[in-house]
Amino acid sequence: MTGVAGLATQTPTSPDGPPDAAPQAIAGGATVPATPLAAPSLPSPIEELTSAQLLAPTRIVTAAPVGEPPPLVRAWFDDEASAKIPEHDGTIGTARVAAQAYARQAKADNTRRAYRAGVRAWCAWCDRHALPCLPACAADVVAFLAAERGRGMSVNTVDLRRAAIRYLHFIAGCPVPTAEAQVAETIAGIHREAAARGQAPAKKLAATAAILREILAPIPDDLAGLRDRALLLVGFVGALRRAELAAIRVEHLEARERGLRLTLPRSKGERTGKLVTVAIPYGTTLLCPVRALRRWQEAAGITEGPVFRRIWLPPTRRQGGTAPLPCPVVGSAAIDPGTVARIVKARAAAAGFDRRDLGGHSLKRGAMTTGMDRGVHPTRLKQLGRHKSYAVLDEYLELGDPFEAHPLSGVL
Question: How far is CA 238 from the centre of its chain?
Fold first, then answer.
């Protein structure tokens, strides 16, 4: 019998034997209970169960739809990728469901969204061509990736599509077709072809200290300006990702003698769930990030909850164009990571930069590049950026002039 949310239920049984016999009908429509089957009296090492426990349905792990039509695979993956951790009830079925839900939580929200989009595209393509999507063969995967590139998808998107197919097969317990050599060769060819066309993935411009000063100069001291100035300065000094900036709450900030101690409850570079501490030191100029943050909090009256919030104008009816505009209102919910990127682009454009050159990653790249230009040791830069390896650190550095500090300059 199928229960709620696709989980199977079992007919309640006695802990010592088979289900009770069904009642038997007698003349007149009345019923009398049938005599239940006798169960052997065996000693049990487990404690006696209550009637509520006996009647509770047992939840089991939903099996992967291997060999099923693509629409069913897509629906199953959407449910799995957003699986919620169930309430503990002591049953093995719930424990298995919880284990799978915890495993899904190892992926960041943005990663899971990208994987869902990739699996949807993969399932739709397989459905159109009457191909199996789970399990898939490498020949079909490379054809799909080539088709995605052919219809204008960027190299980064094609890479995400491959990763999504890999993750789909991984959680379904199927052999992973993306691990085969022909998939790697196809991806390498797509990258090389894109580079030849000048379409290689472009990194966002690093908002170094010099560029940041130019961006901050025209920002006014109105409510939105105070928020955006604080956001840009804190994001730069803390080398924060856009999602980390958007998630800052007042409770995460602790005043110290030399600045603020920011505790991040979640960070992309820390997958074990440990809290991450970031120092926000006092500045020596008018661009001090700590003072800028305090000015914003005082102006917005923020004493708890999200620090960086949406600002909006309430609707009003203007009479003859003479009524004053309403005052901006600070919302109660935090801005999202996308808003952080839009703020960076808008403020950069107002300062004369091309908004396409900068984005949410510009602040972190700018912090790392500024530290490198100041001669900070790579180990300290790796600590500032909270990177697990030097290879990842290298992706955030903008080397600039190759003649500057050339290792062999002046040797010959």
Answer: 20
CA 298 to chain centroid, in Å, comes to 31
Architecture of domain 209-313+328-395: Orthogonal Bundle (1.10)
Rounded Cα distance, 41 and 35, in Å: 17
- Does this model's pTM top 0.70? no
Residue 53's CB is within 10 A of a number of other CB atoms, namely: 13
Region class of 239: left (phi > 0), else alpha (psi between -120 and 50), else beta: left
Q: Give the type of residue at 134.
A: L
d(CA 379, CA 305): 34
Residue ranges of domains in the chain: 1-6+58-201, 209-313+328-395
pLDDT digits 0-9 by tens, 69-85: 999 999 999 888 877 88
DSSP state for residue 312 in the 8-state scheme: E
Burial class (CB in 10 A: 0-12, 13-18, 19+), 47: exposed
Per DSSP, the three-state class of 269 is: coil
* Fold classified for 1-6+58-201: DNA polymerase; domain 1 (1.10.150)
Q: What is the pLDDT of residues 187-230, one digit of tens each?
A: 999 999 998 888 766 778 889 999 999 999 999 999 999 999 99
Which residues contact residue 248 at a Cβ distance below 8 angstroms, ignoring those fewer than 6 apart?
A: 234, 262, 306, 307, 308
Q: Rounded to 5 degrees, what are φ and ψ at 295? A: -60, -40
Give residue for tokens 């966002």: 204
For residue 67, CA distances in Å to 71, 165, 173 come to 11, 15, 13
Q: Take residue 219 and report the two structure tokens written for it.
A: 């920002």
Amino acid at 351: A
